[in-house]
Amino acid sequence: LFSCGTSKEGDSYIVEWNEAEGAVKRTYQGFRKRSMGVVQFDTTKNRFLAAGDEFLIKFWDMDNVNLLTTTDADGGLP
């Protein structure tokens, strides 16, 4: 289970939850401090996580909180 949002300080985040414990399992790194819009995300085959941020599509291996790679969205994302 994943959720995304903005902290009280304005920082964007995506977290993975441990449903059995009701606790955060992972917090993914690589977001801009203050996102210009709502961060949208999707998972693919429980292997990769993708999110739009800073006019980029950002990718993570779901087993690692560090940003894997990015691709330019040619200004199509906030």
From TrEMBL:
InterPro entries named in the record: Topless_fam, WD40_repeat_dom_sf
Domain of life: Eukaryota
One GO-annotated biological process of the protein: regulation of DNA-templated transcription
The name this protein goes by in its record: Uncharacterized protein
Species whose genome carries this gene: Nymphaea colorata (pocket water lily)
